[in-house]
# Entry
Amino acid sequence: MLGNKPLEEPSAAPAAGRAARGRPSKAQQAFQRGLTALAQWVEREGARPVPCGHAEEIAVDGETDPVVVKLGVWISNIRARRDKLTQEQLEALRELGVERA
# Structure
């Protein structure tokens, strides 16, 4: 047959490979950085809402300089993508006062 190739089995998703090796995906790392920044904010500011333009500096293992997390943007993105969050992620957000995630 001209131009037709037999169907091939799809390869394993890259994220599945990382998870199997015990390394979190980039999305998981980003969520954890945001959660760390939010916890730092809550500890310092209490239940006060995070301004949209606020950025929080956090310490990350393996990094010599602080990492800047655009916390206001992160919270907005989390709320917009709440359908893609796991139950554990939603619970972690609730514990820090983000009820509408």
Observations:
- The CA atoms of residues 52 and 76 lie 8 Å apart.
- The chain has one domain: 25-95.
- DSSP finds four helices and two strands in the chain.
- The two ends are 52 Å apart (CA to CA).
